[in-house]
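Technical note accompanying the year-one report. For the benefit of new consortium partners, we illustrate the data format agreed upon in the data management plan: each record pairs a sequence with a structure-token string. No post-processing was applied to the example shown here.
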Amino acid sequence: MKYEDIIASCYSNGYGFIPEPDAYKICAEFAIPHPRFSFVRTKKEGLHAAEEIGYPVVIKIVSPEVIHKSEVGGVILDLRTPQELDEGFDRLLKNVREKAGGVPISGILVQQSMSAGVEVAVGGADNPQFGPVVMFGSGGILIEVFKDVSFRLAPLDQEEARRQLEETMAYEILKGVRGRPACDLEAVCQVIVNTGRLLTEIPQLAEIDFNPVQAFPDGCFVLDARIKLKN
């Protein structure tokens, strides 16, 4: 399904955010890398998907009314066996029902678990004054604690994205510290550039939040994707 069809479907269903599985499909169209994943509706489908993806896996709730999944226990990490996945499905659904009530549940995302890298964040918005703006900064909760962010107008090229990286504290970690190898800075810059393309080429997008983006010496991957649509 092309991004035009995904967006049309979201509008027809009254969704304010693009469901995460569909957000990854849009990422793929714009060469933004993400882990392997499968969207499933039953535990049996989930067990089959995990076998194809390969353990360990992460599972996440998919609901049009659950945007911040971790706040309702809607994410379970590092499931390493079919038994852990079986129990994880039950725990995930129990968490969401207890903390979010009777929200509609579309299904569950089964996603490849990635090894530890350097967490950064890439995002952006269509600013009423300036137009599309791309953000880069420290990832995870650090972006909220340290406000370590830098902004650029989109579209931008690889060279400008590199300058954006260099304005942040995250850049010092990406270069490699205390014996850790440097991350693939070109791959991180490419995610920034392609996020800018998303904002400029799809006018229906209001906000993009890729956090975390996990950076490695040989690439980087968007591990969580939230894309908000304009009203």
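Partners are asked to follow this layout when depositing records. The chain has two domains: 3-112, 118-229.
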